Structure formats: structure tokens, C-alpha cells
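Workshop exercise sheet. Pairs work together: one partner reads the sequence aloud, the other fills in the structure field after running the prediction. Swap roles for the next sheet.
Pair: D.N. / O.F.
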Amino acid sequence: MNQTSFEFPLNEKVRNYLRVEYMFNIIADPELCCTKNNEVTFLRNLFQLLDLNERVDLKTELIRDLNVYAQNIKHWLSYSNVDKEKLNATAEEVNQTIEALSASPRIGCSLRQDRFLSAIRQRFSIPGATCSFDLPKLHYWINQPSELKCKQMQDWLAPMLLLQRAIRLVLTFIRQRKPLESVTAANGFYQGVADAKVELIRIEYSHTLDYYPTLSGNKYRYAVRFMRFGDDNLSEKDNNKDISFKLASC
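Structure field:
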């Protein structure tokens, strides 16, 4: 059965983590970007990554979270019925990432000094302003050989890979806090209680259903409501269908 997954963060920190992960997923393969002529999309998401990193102190948040997980792993290692080899390997990766983050300068600072990126970055915030007459320098670069462009993209990504690695680690810990469990939304509505540790609501359900989930809530409780897709004339109260899905409060 074709399953669709949704993730809803319950705080701004995890919201930023998910946004960074999403942008990395788009630009992670420069060769594919060149093949599909998505160089502008690559650069737009690279600039959004830099903007987010400049606006939010992701480095401090990540170090704080990873230190908590390192302490948790030490605690888990005291249990006899755990895979200590796997835990030790994870602990080593977490500690290495903490050390690398602590020793690194502000992530992405070298890209802000790149003359080519600096010359075109501001125009990307203007709708439609990446045309050849707006940015002839960009379009000259786009028409370079794919090998040259891919190498340049990889060089631009290199200073950001530590951020990607740290985000992947933290989100893995968050997602694995709770397994998915089968629940039912009576009349398309489900309400749950969230404790102080819950930061992410994960939802999985059959894509064949003509509904999509929305979530509202705070650090104490949350509500999932399934909305009918493509029929804006139906009000929420018209959704009287019980929907089975899987949910995890992480």
C-alpha cells in the first residue's frame, strides 16, 4: 500500500531543522541539478540555507541537542540488553560532530565571501530576477560545461556538509523516540496530549485516501484534522469519515 508521510514540528527549533534538511535534500546531488538544468534552483536553495543559518544560531542549538543525546547514550550503555557496539559507534559519531561544530567557524562564512555568489545573491530575492538580462554573469556560468559546474557546486556545498551531518543526527534521534502506532481519527479528528519532550508529530497513512492532515497545537496538546483534498466548498464539519492512520509523538 502506498503510504504518505507528514511531519509537524511543535517548536521553532525543529521547524528550522526540518527546513534545512528539506533544502539539503534538494541540492544534495549537484550532478543531478546540472543534468536537469536546475542550477538556478540549486543556487536559490543554497542562498536560503545561508539566510536561515544567518538568521538562526543553528550551531549553538545543534551542539546543545547533541550533548544531550551523548549523555543519553551513556545512560543507555548501562543497560545489559542493548546493542553496545551500535551505541558506541553512534556515540563516537555524535562526539566527533560536537567537536567539529565547536571547532568550526560560523557555518557558511566562506560562502559569504565568494565573489560570484555575492554578485548574484541579492537578485534571487526578487521574483523573476534571474533572467539573463538581470544576471548575465549567472547565465554565462550556467552555459559552462556540466563538469565545471558540478565541481563548483560541490565546492560550495563542502562548507555546509557539517551542518547537514549534524541536522541528520539530531533529526534521527528525534524521529526514533517513538514508533508509529495505529490510531483512528473519528470524523477526521484526532486529539493527543504532548509532554514537554514531544517536539515532532509524525503521521503516515494511505495515499489512496482523499484527505490530507493538518495539525494545530502547543507543547501541552495537539489536534490532527484530516481535510478533503480538492473540494474547497466542503466545510470542515462535513468531514464525517473515520480515518485510520499511524502516528508517533516524538
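Discussion prompt: DSSP finds ten helices and seven strands in the chain. What would you look at next?
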